Records
---
Amino acid sequence: MKVQLRVITHSEIQCYLDCRRLYYYKYNLQLQEPVGKALRMGSSLHANMALYFAGDEVKDILDSIDKQYTSLLFSDDEYIRDITKAMIIGHDACYNRSEFETIDVEVEFRVPIIYDANTHKVKYAGVVDAVVKHVPTGKYWLVEHKTTSSITPAYRKRLEIDPQLTMYLLGMVQNQEEPYRDMKFEGIFFNAFRKPTINPKQGESQEAYAVRLVKDYCGRPDFYFFRQECLRNQAELDEMREFLWYRAEELSNPPPDYARNRNHCDSWGGCAFRPLCIEFSDELCMAYERKPKLHPELNSAE
Ligand code: SF4
């Protein structure tokens, strides 16, 4: 069975590199992993940082977050709501907002894969969290937000060669849509938010915990927030072109066995498809939801 590829994304490539069997489940059978707390936390922050970079006032964003969580679907929704609010408040207190002028948020690119003067039939696509002008220098940057459990020197070092950042920069360099066609990008501002290290105390109300969260985020900005300017030179962008070409080739003609990578089974809290890997059956497949589209991270129709 082959996937009818029109575009590939960073998530798809990463999944294929992690485990080909996992790729088969997610991109051939289009099965949906259960959406865990970490993903819901990240989605909540991204959606609301989009409002922030679009210019909304913090008080309006906080009101909007409350409205987003009027119906509590998961037991930890209040927890995620209050962390999102504390992150937005702390971030606003930590940085000078007027340093950036936002060109747009959630900018989607869909561009050809060109390598060695050849254009692949597969395109690649992605969504950049924001494109901004750095007001003091007049230079253009991409912005990527990320929630993380820890910010170590090794974490920062990995950003120097993070393939997603390189891929997004290349995508925007190639983007022929206005106003990006002739825009020169300096690099990517990596905007990280650390998850809280304080938990609700025994008997503490949600309201009291929310107040403590805000105090903690505002009181320890160096602990909870960090930004890094991630630069890429021409050689790195060219190497990414080559990388994308060969991944597009592989994904157009994947080996039929979709080999398991057992080293990946316990990553990120454990693979959600382990039961299928142990004993595949159509009945078990039916227990998983189907992804509404192959790449839910893209805004546009596929
Ligand atoms: S359980 Fe392991 S081998 Fe199976 S799909 Fe998941 S990561 Fe791959």
Note: Residues 19, 21-22, 260-262, 264-265, 271, 273-274, 277 surround iron/sulfur cluster (CB under 6 Å).
---
Amino acid sequence: MSPKARLRAKARKKARKAAKKRPSAIRKKVCRFCADANLKIEYKDPKTLRYFMTETGKLIPQRISGNCAKHQRQVCVAVKRARQLALMPYAPSHM
Ligand SMILES: [Zn+2]
């Protein structure tokens, strides 16, 4: 094998390895309610629920917030209760 061919083979191997490697920017999302046992989902606590809302007053989907299904359901119910008590907004005009 000539030196040039060896260099090319090395470059090809490096490229193959780089293609296989997953991008390091992707982080595994963790449900913060599963991770922290002290954190409770409560309709009387709009401060915590605010975190799961957009600035237009919509709920953030679990694929973005990272909540698990069980806790996302609980957050949804809590937000709806808080809205009934006017602790949280229904629409951006209520902010
Ligand atoms: Zn959870």
Note: DSSP finds five helices and no strands in the chain.
